[in-house]
């Protein structure tokens, strides 16, 4: 895999059951899960179930790893032939190091190679999730618009921005 675009070196690899403790570290953090569909996890068993029933069955779900420890994920979901959604998260202690941006750029390259039928990757982000919007913009995604009251998340219906990356768009260099 390509080296990362951040100062911290990371790789993307599929999840393993042995990632459960690492996953619990970030999925157990309310600040990490705030804008995600998942509830904050509290036990290792929940993390194991998540790996078995969410990570492994998803067609493209990669662990972002530093020194072989999982510190986040980047994954596609809702594949519909020519398009798929993409999402990501990074453990709080690694925020602000360019990891999400680098991982997203890497993921786009890999997904478009692994699924040649995909011409559009799209991402929804809560209008209040400024960090995620910046990650998408830095990775070359185009903001397409505001989707009012689009997502029910943790009991609230929120506005989203929708972003897309087309297979014909230019993926900027992974290193910077
Ligand atoms: C959003 C998230 C993925 C950003 O991860 P990250 O590794 O810190 O992002 P990067 O370091 O690549 O930052 C990219 C840019 O976003 C900016 N940024 C990151 N978080 C920010 C925040 N909370 N507010 C404002 N800007 C922010 C960075 O400063 C950087 O911009 P710059 O290079 O111009 O300074 C991370 O905070 C996270 O995992 N949040 C919880 C899960 C989540 O919201 N996932 C997305 C769901 S749509």
Automatic annotation (TrEMBL):
UniProt xrefs under InterPro entries: Acyl_CoA_acyltransferase (IPR016181), GNAT_dom (IPR000182)
The record ties this protein, via SUPFAM superfamilies, to: Acyl-CoA N-acyltransferases (Nat) (SSF55729)
Boundaries of every N-acetyltransferase domain copy = 10-168
Q: Which Pfam families match?
A: Acetyltransf_3
Q: Which UniProt keywords apply?
A: Acyltransferase, Transferase
For this protein, the parts annotated as crossing the membrane are: none
Q: Does the keyword Acyltransferase apply?
A: yes
Q: Which domain of life is it from?
A: Eukaryota
One GO molecular-function annotation for this sequence? acyltransferase activity, transferring groups other than amino-acyl groups
- PROSITE patterns, per the entry: GNAT
The protein in question is named Acyl-CoA N-acyltransferases (NAT) superfamily protein
* Organism of provenance: Artemisia annua
């Amino acid at each position: 895999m390509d080296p990362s675009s951040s100062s911290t070196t990371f790789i993307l690899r599929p999840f393993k059951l042995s990632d459960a403790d690492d996953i619990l570290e970030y999925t157990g953090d309310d600040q990490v899960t705030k804008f995600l569909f998942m509830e904050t996890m509290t036990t290792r068993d929940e993390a194991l179930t998540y790996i078995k029933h969410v990570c492994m069955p998803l067609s493209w779900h990669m662990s972002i790893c530093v020194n072989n420890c999982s510190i986040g994920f980047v994954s596609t979901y809702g594949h519909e032939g020519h398009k798929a959604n993409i999402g990501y998260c990074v453990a709080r202690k690694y925020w602000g190091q360019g990891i999400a941006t680098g991982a997203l750029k890497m993921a786009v390259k890999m997904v478009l190679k692994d699924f040649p039928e995909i011409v559009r990757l799209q991402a929804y982000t809560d209008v209040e999730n400024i960090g995620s919007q910046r990650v998408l913009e830095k990775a070359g995604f185009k903001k397409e618009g505001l989707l009012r009251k689009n997502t029910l998340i943790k009991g609230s219906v929120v506005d989203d921005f929708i972003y897309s990356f087309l297979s014909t768009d230019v993926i900027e260099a992974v290193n910077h």
